[in-house]
Amino acid sequence: MSVTSSISGEKLTINIAGRFDFSSHKDFRAAINSIETNHVNHACVDMRTTEYVDSSALGMLLMLKNKMGDSKESISIINAKPEVKKILEIANFGQLFTLS
Amino acid sequence: MGITQPKSAPNAATKALVVDDSMSQRLLLSHMLEELGYEVCSAKNGEEGVEQFKSERPDIIFMDVEMPILDGIGATRAIRKILGDEFIPIIFVTGGSSEKYLDECIKIGGDDFIKKPFNATILSAKTRSLLRIKQLYNEQIEQKREIELFKEEEDREHETAAELYENIVKAGFMESPNVRHMLSPMALFNGDLLLVSYTPANKLNVLLGDFTGHGITASVAAAPASEIFYGMTSKGFDIREIIEEINTKLNRLLPAHMFLAATAVCLDRENHNLSIITCGLPDHFLFNKETCTIKTLVSKNLPLGIVSSKDLNVQQDHIEVTSQHRLFMFTDGVIETENAAGEPFDFDGVTKCLSPMGISSFDLILKSLEEHQGAQCQQDDITLVRLTCDFDHEKWDVHEDVSKHIDMEPSNWKFSSTMDYNTLKRLNPVPTMVNSLMEIQGLLPYRESIFLVVTELFINSLDHGLLGLDSALKNTPDGFAKFFELKHDRLDALTTGDIKLIFSHRPLKKGGELSIRIQDTGNGFNEEAIISEIINNEQYSGRGIKLIRQICDSLEYSDGGRRATAIFTWENE
Fold first, then answer.
1. Which residues of A touch B213 (CB under 8 A)?
2. pLDDT tens track for B143-161
3. Strands B511-520 and B260-268, bridge-based pairing
4. B301 vs A contacts (CB less than 8 Å)
5. Is omega for the bond preceding B117 within 30 degrees of 0, making it cis?
6. According to the model, what pLDDT value does residue B329 have?
7. Facing residues of B503 across strands?
8. Chain A partners of B302 at a C-beta cutoff of 8 Å?
9. Which of A2, B38, B217, B520 is the least crowded, having the fewest Cβ atoms under 10 Å away?
10. Which own/partner pairs from B125-133 qualify as long-range (CB within 8 Å, at least 24 positions apart)?
């Protein structure tokens, strides 16, 4: 697992490689802690290299949402593999995030 | 008990033990050590050395090898045995013939050598260095003990959390022959939750949940969820209202990253209806044993505790079921159980086990899971629930056996309440009204009966009176689902009308008489049609009215079907 993030302008991009679970917790937190200081208004979670998500990963996405505010458009989750997308869909996270 | 070691002079309290049978050597070494600032005690053979060690507890020991009675090697062995995992450096004093023992000395627990004749600088350096090692060692031992203590404490807390959680989950749990479940201890620890109870109107409510987080975190959140479920179920609230209440509570209570994935099910015997609200658990399967068909129930709502109940906008499904239907529900531990090759059990693993008459699919799933898991280390995080839609069981007939005695003096009272169309859209007034009756007259032993009567009358009033729905709809396959859909739409579109509930009570000789009147502003309905319904259609909608007639002394419709009056009498036994 590894979480890397970059900010360009007002957009935060987070990449998660490997398993997205509790072990990513610290790094993910660090990544979203930069949101306020950098006036981020859009966050993009790129899951092209994410192999697995568990419920604590869903929790972390909710922490991100909490930071970004209520608008569904402010966060997009992109490139999720089918098995990862399935888990996001079971939790109906499509209602909270833009899944593509 | 670490010692402080100044850079130049050793601490005055630092004590050295010198064990040597040669008096001159003993005195020389003792003197040198005293010169270096140590407190010194001495012994003239191994046996005395061990005794001195016991009484003086030195910080460092100088040990000659060849001595009468007990030699240095024997004494060192004895001292090390007494010390256990404590560490005191032992330096062997060697010279001449004793050098052949060097290897043996280290093997049995010596730490260093010093050669005769003694050099003051070397003696000082070796002593200081070994005392430093002793200090480091002791600090490490201390830390290790602290960690062990901490771990013990943590284990105890985990145990407490697990026990607390189990108690919360099990308190209020009503065994039902319709519910078979398997909850492994590991699943409990991981925050899986199963709640089962009957409503006063004899509907079976089941909630299966899975908290993010486990141990103490999950048990903190499980307490209010389970209290709400059992409290509201016993008061006859609908699963939708229960889910909304739990969601509201958890939304306020839980930190952002925590939530409860859950499914609530209500099995209604009167209507042969299964209501289900799915919030983020893996797909469930509704299996018909007779036709061998499987209906997959996909999660339609967000898990609980994330958004407000208004934003949750609960989607509820109504499915008509027969005694052949079995609902299989599970948390993700089941489908994620891996085999030796790392492949998950998955949904296929479950559906493959759904078998026709005769064989228990539940057992098959468990067996298949076990085989799948094989010799793998036990993941054992399994929560599996089967809800049997069997309506013939005795359990349905009675699960309340309280003494029918009411302490409250029967009295005269009357109260009424009117709900306009807007109120009806968002509120089911029956539980609240029935609860008020219980407060006023203490009719708790009759709660179930009264609840049933008020519910049936109210629903008739709303469905047929105000919404003009035709119960004939319920006779066709899938009719129930259509009926509920239509009810939902019409209620949404309602712009006028209200329902009035009037309760009055008067004392009788040994008890009292409760009159329940429910009146609506709808178009009314044909009383004859109702009567015929009672006679011809016992299976579904008419059954409610038939039941009321059984429970009540009388039931009368007037004002063109707009007003229903039921008389219920009770006696103190």
1. 56, 59
2. 999 999 999 988 888 788 7
3. unpaired
4. 92
5. yes
6. 95
7. B415, B516
8. 91-93, 95-96
9. A2
10. B126/B91, B127/B10, B127/B16, B127/B33, B127/B36, B127/B38, B127/B60, B127/B91, B128/B5, B128/B10, B130/B60, B130/B89, B130/B91, B131/B3, B131/B5, B131/B10, B131/B14, B131/B59, B131/B60, B131/B89, B132/B5, B133/B87, B133/B89
Spatial distance between the Cα atoms of B109 and B73, rounded to a whole number of angstroms: 9
* Burial class for B194, CB neighbours closer than 10 Å (0-12, 13-18, 19+): buried
Q: B284, B95, B300, B97: which is closest to B206 by C-alpha?
A: B284
Amino acid of residue B462: L
- Cβ <8 Å between B300 and A92: yes
pTM of the model: 0.70
Strand pairing partners for B558? Answer: B563
What pLDDT is recorded for position B300? 92
DSSP SS3 for A90: helix
How far is Cα B349 from Cα B334, in angstroms, rounded to an integer? 9
Cα–Cα distances in angstroms (integers) from residue B127 to residues A42, B92, B368, in the given order: 65, 12, 67
SS (H, E, C) B50-98: HHHHHHHCCCEEEEECCCCCCCHHHHHHHHHHHHCCCCCCEEEEECHHH
- For helices A25-37 and A55-68, angle between their N-to-C axes, nearest 10 degrees: 10
pLDDT value of residue B1:
41
Residues of chain B in contact with residue A93, where contact means CB-CB under 8 angstroms, are: 302
Tell me which residue of A22, A26, A23, A27 sits closest to A14, measured CA to CA.
A27
User: Is A55's CB within 8 Å of B283's CB?
Assistant: no
Chain B nearest CA to A67, separation (Å): 10
Pairing between β-strand B112-115 and β-strand B204-211 as defined by DSSP bridges: unpaired
The verdict on a CB contact (< 8 Å) between B256 and A65 is yes
Amino acid at B51: E
Are residues B213 and A63, on separate chains, in Cβ contact within 8 Å? Answer: no
Mutation target vs B (from A55, A72, A85, A89; most B CBs, 10 A cutoff): A55
Q: Looking at residue B192, what is its pLDDT?
A: 87
Give yes or no for a contact between B321 and B273, defined as CB atoms under 8 angstroms apart. yes
Q: Which domains does chain B have, with CATH numbers?
A: 15-141 (3.40.50.2300), 171-396 (3.60.40.10), 413-571 (3.30.565.10)
Q: What is the mean pLDDT of chain B?
A: 84
DSSP per residue over B145-202, as a string? HHHHHHHHHHHHHHHHHHHHHHHHHHTT----TTEEEEE-HHHHHTTEEEEEEE-TTS
Q: Is the pLDDT of residue B7 over 60?
A: no
pLDDT of residue B214: 65
In chain A, which residues have their Cβ closer than 8 Å to the Cβ of B256? 59, 62-63, 65-66
Could you tell me whether strands B413-420 and A98-99 are parallel, antiparallel, or unpaired per DSSP bridges?
Answer: unpaired
Q: Which residue has the tokens 């109260």?
A: B415
The mean-pLDDT minimum among B115-129, B248-262, B264-278, B538-552 falls in B538-552
Domains recognised in chain A with CATH numbers? 2-99 (3.30.750.24)
Q: Give CA–CA dist A27/A32, Å, rounded.
A: 9
Q: What ipTM did this prediction achieve?
A: 0.81
Q: In which band, very low, low, confident or very high, does the pLDDT at B537 lie, cut at 50, 70 and 90?
A: very low
